[in-house]
Write a sequence for this structure.
């Protein structure tokens, strides 16, 4: 089955700096890669996703890059703000045809943005 | 946007009793829903995939007789923790697959419910 590795497990940055979280996956068939932000005791919220037919996607301060050959994808947050502090999870799934989009999650990254 | 609602948000039950948690997709039909368990400061552990109109698919190591899943309609899946024990205390969270719409086709997306804190005393 799919295995997703996520690094780093914790990340501390100063407000205004950039943050990068990296994930690798094992199943070359996976083609859907979402990123979720989870605050303590709350639901994971989808912040951005990318599908394998593109290499990069951007939404304001958040961007995701995908390298299918190397089987890794990364989350980039620019101009970080204290409210970006949370746990971020990457995930991978087979998302096409009759698949059910069963997500395999990384272990999460605790991001702390210091004012 | 898509909304998935989960109820109750918190429940305390006595050891040996059963507890039902509901997961509803509010503005889309979800043929597939997923149930996760999350321990403090840990990642989401998939328990089972709930398929509308058919039996759930359980992950290895998850007791299907203890964690009963029913996906009776396109907008509702339920998880029943039977004969609960203190070690079942956890954060349980569901997600639903929203079919893609529009042109160009955007693909399916997974949205999560608010989660349910279960405490078994």
């Amino acid at each position: 089955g799919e295995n997703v590795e996520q690094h780093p497990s914790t990340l501390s940055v100063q407000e205004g700096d950039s943050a990068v979280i990296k994930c690798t996956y094992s199943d070359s068939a996976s083609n859907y890669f979402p990123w979720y932000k989870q605050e303590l005791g709350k639901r994971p919220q989808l912040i951005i996703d990318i599908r394998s037919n593109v290499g990069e996607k951007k939404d304001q301060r958040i961007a995701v890059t995908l390298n299918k050959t190397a089987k890794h994808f990364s989350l980039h947050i620019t101009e970080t703000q204290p409210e970006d502090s949370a746990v971020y999870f990457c995930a991978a799934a087979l998302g096409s045809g009759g698949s059910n989009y069963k997500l395999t999650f990384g272990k999460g990254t605790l991001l702390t943005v210091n004012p | 946007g898509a909304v998935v609602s989960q109820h109750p948000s918190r429940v305390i039950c006595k050891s040996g009793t059963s507890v039902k948690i509901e997961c509803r997709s509010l503005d889309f039909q979800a043929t597939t829903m997923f149930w996760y368990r999350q321990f403090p400061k840990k990642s989401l552990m998939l328990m089972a995939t709930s398929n509308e109109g058919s039996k759930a698919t359980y992950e290895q190591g998850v007791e299907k007789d203890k964690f009963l899943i029913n996906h009776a309609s396109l907008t509702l899946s339920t998880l029943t923790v039977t004969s609960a024990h203190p070690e079942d205390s956890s954060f349980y969270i569901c997600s639903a697959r929203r079919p893609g719409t529009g042109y160009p086709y955007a693909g399916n997306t997974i949205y999560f419910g608010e989660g349910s804190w279960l405490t078994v005393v």
About this structure: Chain B touches chain A through 23 residues (CB under 8 Å).
